[in-house]
UniProtKB/TrEMBL annotation:
It comes from the Bacteria. This is Putative glyoxalase. Residues 12-129, 142-260 form the VOC domain. InterPro entries: Anthracycline_SecMetBiosynth, Glyas_Bleomycin-R_OHBP_Dase, Glyas_Fos-R_dOase_dom, VOC_core.
Length: 262
């Protein structure tokens, strides 16, 4: 697994946001496990996560209002893909069979965004920056930043077709995972940045899974347990000489970690 240090300014993931039911608890958890610190964003209800390298924020945290904590609200991580025109791309999402969960709107002084879903229901977001790109690429493997993007879909081929048509993503290598089917790597203008696969039957709905870089997978898993999280899959040794683990935080959000050392 690898992430290019020279990715294009659009049609790539640039930001990640955690929707959670307890901002304080989630902040403490990820501070302990990933090493982030959190600070006020200046926007109502939104905090920013700073990565270990301190070069720039890696993502945000949004607490779901108590009145909205019901089955209609999904807690979890949402990835933002940079685009040149949020409104135009959002329209293309619906034309291709997807859905709009939050219509395009402005973030004063930052840009414009929309929360959407692909035709199979996996949620992601679109982001159009105001002025210069506020999310420049970082060095491959930088601790605390996202090192891999993985789509768990109902129909892998149909899902790839949707994202290829929307963003121009291209296929890279494929891996045969036996009973789990084919794992399709994809690229966004450089080396592969993620993979797509058929979701397990036990998984209720398609979703995007984001892998955060950490230095060693064993100690990272230990920190997950110590902070009240759950290991749900792994650790596994994967191609590219990397180790991965998939986890759940105490509020129920699924995330993953990737490391060069066991």
């Amino acid at each position: 697994m690898s992430t290019s240090t020279m990715l294009p300014s659009v049609d790539r993931f640039v930001w990640y946001e955690l929707v959670t039911t307890d901002a304080d608890a989630a902040t403490a958890f990820y501070r302990s496990v990933i090493g982030w610190s959190a600070r006020d964003s200046g926007l109502p209800g939104l905090a920013l996560y700073d990565a270990q390298c301190r070069c720039r924020p890696v993502g945000g945290l949004l607490e779901v209002a108590r009145a909205a904590r019901d089955d209609a609200v999904r807690t979890g991580w949402i990835g933002y893909v940079a685009v040149g025109d949020v409104d135009a791309v959002a329209a293309r999402v619906t034309q291709a069979g997807g859905a709009i969960h939050r219509a395009p709107q402005d973030i004063p002084g930052v840009g414009r965004f929309a929360v959407v879903a692909d035709p199979q229901g996996a949620i992601f977001a679109l982001f159009q920056a105001t002025g210069e790109d506020p999310m420049p690429p970082v060095q491959e493997g930088t601790p605390g930043h996202v090192g891999w993007h993985e789509l768990h879909a109902i129909d892998r081929e149909a899902a790839f077709g949707f994202y290829a048509g929307l963003f121009g993503w291209t296929k890279a290598e494929t891996m045969d995972m036996g009973p789990m089917g084919i794992y399709q790597l994809f690229a966004t203008g450089g080396p592969p940045v993620g993979g797509m696969m058929k979701k397990a039957d036990s998984v209720p709905a398609p979703f995007w899974l984001y892998y955060f870089n950490t230095e060693e997978i064993g100690p990272a898993i230990a920190r997950v347990h110590e902070a009240g999280g759950t290991l749900i899959n792994g650790p596994h040794h994967v191609p590219g000489e990397r180790w991965i683990a998939q986890c759940r935080d105490p509020q129920g959000a699924i995330f993953a970690m990737v490391a060069p050392k066991p």
